[in-house]
What does this fold into?
Amino acid sequence: GAVVSQHPSWVICKSGTSVKIECRSLDFQATTMFWYRQFPKQSLMLMATSNEGSKATYEQGVEKDKFLINHASLTLSTLTVTSAHPEDSSFYICSATGTSGGLTYEQYFGPGTRLTVT
Amino acid sequence: AQSVTQLGSHVSVSEGALVLLRCNYSSSVPPYLFWYVQYPNQGLQLLLKYTTGATLVKGINGFEAEFKKSETSFHLTKPSAHMSDAAEYFCAVSPANTGGFKTIFGAGTRLFVKA
It folds into this structure.
């Protein structure tokens, strides 16, 4: 199946700094990427949907100025957590879907990025 | 609106026993239904999905699920549990008219397998 990678797999940053998380589709063109947030022992919460070349669509309650999403190419989307605070500590998971060779791919998930803000 | 309810945050079975993880959904439009597995500190792996057609869906690792519209259920089963099945399982629903991409996840059920 298709592969989605995330980088870094874990990151520790100081309060007030910004951190960027990358999500890449390795073997297909990801026309749409999704960003989820998962708190410990809880389910995934959809944060935003991004389509290549256009602005992301954020879910209700998600601050677009705090969680900047860029989907500049068909293989890369980035999530930047700006002015991070300890409450932003979480597991962030991306997923991607798209087409390749006439086939439509289902939603494939990345391995996740553990963010800890101190 | 769509929602997913997974009955039981924890399920414990003995190795070799039947695995049954319950999922009920609510959807105002025809749904796509999914089961995902998550191992610690990893992303989600798709076990199986229902979109249309046959209501009994077979997935990877010996899992299967049956879509029962009248009961709005999509329970996950496996005849014989293995130690390697211990993980977190998420049921998810997505409106068919979004191509299955606007996914709402249940709270998850952690499966424990005893030797």
User: Anything to note?
Assistant: The longest strand of chain B covers residues 87-95. Chain B touches chain A through 19 residues (CB under 8 Å).
